[in-house]
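QA checklist item 7 of 12: single-chain prediction sanity check.
[x] sequence parsed
[x] length recorded as 111
[x] structure emitted
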Amino acid sequence: MTEPRVVIIGVGNPWRGDDGAGWVAADLAAARLSPGADIVHSDGVVDAVRLGAAVGRLPRRLVVFGIEVADTGPGRGLTPDVARAAQTVAHSIEHEAGTSRPGRLGGFRDA
C-alpha cells in the first residue's frame, strides 16, 4: 500500500463551537485535494504527533495552521468569522500541499 503524500490533521473539538474549526478546515481541504491525501482528527497537535511516533509514521515535515476561536461553548457549529477563517486555512492547506484540483478554488489567500 502506498503511503499518502499528505496527511491533514484536524485539531479541536467539534462539540465545543468554534473549537471544531480545525476539523472543518481539514475536512474542506481534504475534500478538495487530489487522491493521496489522508485526514486524521485529533484533540491536539501533541497527541497526533505522539500517535504518529507510536506507529512509526512521523512526518518529514510538519506545517501547523492556527485559527483563533471566538466561542467554545457547548454545541456544534462555527461563528461566521471563524467559519471564514476555516475556509481561508483550508485554502492555505491546499496551497501548502501543492495538490489542489484546478478550477475548484478561485485563488488562494494567505491565512
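[x] summary fact logged: Confidence is low (pLDDT under 50) at residues 99-111.
[ ] second reviewer sign-off
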